[in-house]
Amino acid sequence: MLRPSNPVVSGQGVRAAAWREVPTTFVRGVADRMPELVSGSVGWEAVEVVELPTGHCPNWSRPDLVAALLAGL
User: Fold this and answer.
1) pTM for the whole thing?
2) CA distance 43 to 54
3) Which residues contact 24 (CB under 8 A, 6 or more apart)?
4) pLDDT tens-digit profile of 19-58?
5) Residue 60: its H or E element
6) Distance between CA atoms of residues 58 and 42, nearest Å
7) What are phi and psi of 19, to 5 degrees?
8) In the prediction, which pLDDT does 56 show?
9) What is the DSSP annotation of 5-43?
């Protein structure tokens, strides 16, 4: 049930975000053609980035890889 995102979201700063206070893992599909809308507001130095050989929805295309990642975390 993916829906279009409001483009206003990418122009607004993030005021409250869990990744500022708790360990965070960002899963990125290397074949994803959709830009990361929040990338400008994320403090990437505080986030572990994991790349998977998937498109935009790794939980749909490779649930085995997502499950293995979650089990490891």
Assistant:
1) 0.66
2) 24
3) 18, 46, 47, 48
4) 778 888 888 888 887 766 556 556 677 788 899 999 989 9
5) helix 58-61
6) 21
7) -65, -10
8) 87
9) PPGGGGGSPPS--GGGTS-EEEEEETT--S--TTTTTS-
